[in-house]
Task: inverse folding
């Protein structure tokens, strides 16, 4: 067994670059799949990057490593970002991302634990991930193990009763080894969460349910890392990090548009989106993307893919 | 009518049956088995949704408090927390009334336990019409169909106290999702500590060649009594205790069909998708014979005493005998 854990990235700019790469990779997989969700995955790329490249104890070469932290993705439909992050972390070859949603793939349209090593649960139907994560955290505490459980949820799935059953359970059992991150992007399939079923004040709801609550900008790497680092020393209560994210982050025509919740970009839209991400990359590096010329409207690297 | 069973011919001696035992609820066998299991295996955990006394897990809870998890009235959380515990190597038994679990949390069982293939045991107490005065809301009749249709899930319906005890142990040893249902009432015992039990192996309680009565759950006792009544009419009925609905014991069922050519299934459940469903589905493809399904026919139950309800819904030995006589008579 290989117990070498992943080499962590601590430099914020390097993490931001990785998040940008993950955004490009997930868009490529969606373009190839011709179905799937765009907005949520793009919005959560920074948090996934922070977790897999800085926070989690895990080992891509030994996914069942017993000392690993557990990442439970409750809103399984944003799995393109999970897959792209895992591929970049070394769980499987990046070219496999192009098999997303295709017959015989390990990258099922919604994550299936038994299909791909490194997935902790099967998910998709909303509202049951937090309960599973709570069960895992409960067992870890019972066995006096130090591993942490990170549960990623959406704001929309807080409309599910099962989520609130789990919130009660985790508080009752003081699961301080459980860290919940809510992708608070204010969109769901039919529109704005506050029109469909108001959730605000979400922070006060959690506080009144006896949780510790932190609010961050979920697209600010510095804030994400700081909050997640602090979360590891959480005491007495479970912790929720309400991460305000921009759905479709990084792609101007997708940002904050709920219509991008559940569809992929066409080839043409995807090319424009990736060109935009290349510009971000160049800006982060302080120099032109080695594959593209910023002077052009279209990024040249697209032709080299 | 109990004494009539002692005159039954062709009883299967290998099963060490004994009809002179007191009536005990099947769920007691579950509770007693858990207490033993909890001692042997610290990974055995019991989860409960505010029904620890009536699902008989109270003693386990008191004996092994750290292995017991009270979830409160939240069945969706009950099974999903169980899934999380199983992911960490625990063997959780999630217990409630069958009408609530699996009744209320079917999708969670489907996704987080069956598709996710976690080693969780779903326990549905108070199933069947004989739940009695509580009425139709609490008389679960659709659980077998709900659970049987799920890939990876097995379905066990033990006949009596001893068999429930054995089945609980077998479920703990079986790696994978499982569902087991109990009745509420005290029911007659027929198996003993010596009676073998294996998941997926139906038991021919009594040999016969004129007609085969196949039952699941405590109702099997009525089948034996019906066989006794039929014996008085010189009709030799085979009786099979089909305690595992899934996986079905194909060989035993096919052999019975070939030998008897006529079958009656009896279950305290909807005939759609239950024991009657599984037997007819199987035999219609491979060896069709006339089958009469006794069970609840697209109907809800109602309040009443268990015996009254069993009579009203056609579960009495007399009713089974009448149906059998009709079927055998047709051929004659």
Result:
């Amino acid at each position: 067994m290989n117990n070498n854990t992943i080499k962590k990235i601590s430099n914020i700019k390097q993490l931001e670059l990785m998040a940008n790469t993950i955004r490009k990779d997930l868009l490529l997989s969606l373009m190839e799949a011709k179905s799937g969700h765009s907005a949520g995955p793009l919005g959560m790329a920074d948090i996934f990057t922070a977790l897999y490249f800085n926070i989690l104890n895990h080992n891509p070469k030994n996914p069942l490593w017993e000392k690993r932290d557990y990442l439970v993705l409750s809103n399984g439909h944003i799995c393109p970002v999970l897959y792209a992050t895992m591929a970049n972390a070394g769980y499987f070859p990046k070219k496999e991302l192009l098999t997303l949603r295709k017959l015989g793939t390990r990258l099922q349209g919604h994550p299936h634990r038994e299909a791909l090593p490194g997935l902790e649960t099967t998910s998709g139907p909303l509202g049951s991930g937090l309960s599973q994560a709570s069960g895992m955290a409960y067992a870890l505490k019972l066995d006096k193990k130090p591993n942490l459980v990170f549960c990623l949820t959406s704001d929309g799935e807080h409309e599910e009763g099962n989520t609130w059953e789990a919130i009660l359970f985790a508080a009752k059992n003081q699961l301080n080894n459980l860290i919940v991150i809510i992708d608070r992007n204010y969109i769901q399939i039919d529109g704005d969460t506050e029109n469909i079923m108001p959730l605000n004040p979400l922070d006060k709801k959690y506080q009144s349910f006896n949780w510790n609550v932190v609010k961050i900008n979920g697209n600010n790497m510095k804030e994400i890392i700081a909050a997640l680092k602090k979360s590891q020393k959480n005491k007495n209560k479970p912790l929720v990090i309400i991460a305000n994210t921009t759905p479709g982050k990084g792609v101007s025509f997708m940002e904050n548009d709920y219509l991008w919740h559940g569809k992929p970009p066409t080839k043409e839209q995807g090319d424009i989106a990736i060109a935009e991400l290349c510009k971000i990359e160049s800006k982060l590096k302080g120099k032109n993307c080695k594959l593209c010329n910023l002077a052009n409207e279209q990024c040249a690297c697209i032709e080299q893919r | 009518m109990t004494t009539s069973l002692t005159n039954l011919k062709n009883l299967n001696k290998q099963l060490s049956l004994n009809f002179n035992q007191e009536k005990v609820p099947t769920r007691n066998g579950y509770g007693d088995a858990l207490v033993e299991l909890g001692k042997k295996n610290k990974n055995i955990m019991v989860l409960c949704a505010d029904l620890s006394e009536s699902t008989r897990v109270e003693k386990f809870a008191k004996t092994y408090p750290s292995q017991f998890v009270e979830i409160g009235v939240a069945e969706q959380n009950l099974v999903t927390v169980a899934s999380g515990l199983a992911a960490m190597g625990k063997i959780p038994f999630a217990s409630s009334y069958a009408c609530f679990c699996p009744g209320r949390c079917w999708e969670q069982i489907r996704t987080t336990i069956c598709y996710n293939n976690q080693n969780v045991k779903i326990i549905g107490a108070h199933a069947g019409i004989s739940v009695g005065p509580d009425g139709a809301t609490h008389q679960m009749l659709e659980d077998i169909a709900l659970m049987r249709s799920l890939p990876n899930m097995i379905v066990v319906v033990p006949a009596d106290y001893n068999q429930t005890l054995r089945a609980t142990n077998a479920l703990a040893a079986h790696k994978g999702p499982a569902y087991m249902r109990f009745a509420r009432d005290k029911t007659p015992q027929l198996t003993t500590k010596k009676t073998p039990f294996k998941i997926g192996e139906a038991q021919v309680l009594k040999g016969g060649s004129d007609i085969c009565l196949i039952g699941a759950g405590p109702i099997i006792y009525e089948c034996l009594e019906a066989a006794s009544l039929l014996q008085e009419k010189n009709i030799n009925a085979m009786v099979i205790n089909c305690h595992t609905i899934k996986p079905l014991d194909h060989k035993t069922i096919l052999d019975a069909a070939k030998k008897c050519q006529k079958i009656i299934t009896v279950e305290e459940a909807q005939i759609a998708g239950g024991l009657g469903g599984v037997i007819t589905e199987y035999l219609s493809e491979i060896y069709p014979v006339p089958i009469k399904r006794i069970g609840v026919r697209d109907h809800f139950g109602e309040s009443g005493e268990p015996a009254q309800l069993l009579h009203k819904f056609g579960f009495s030995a007399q009713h089974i005998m009448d149906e059998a006589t009709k079927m055998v008579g047709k051929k004659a």
About this structure: Chain B has two domains: 2-21+194-331, 24-187.
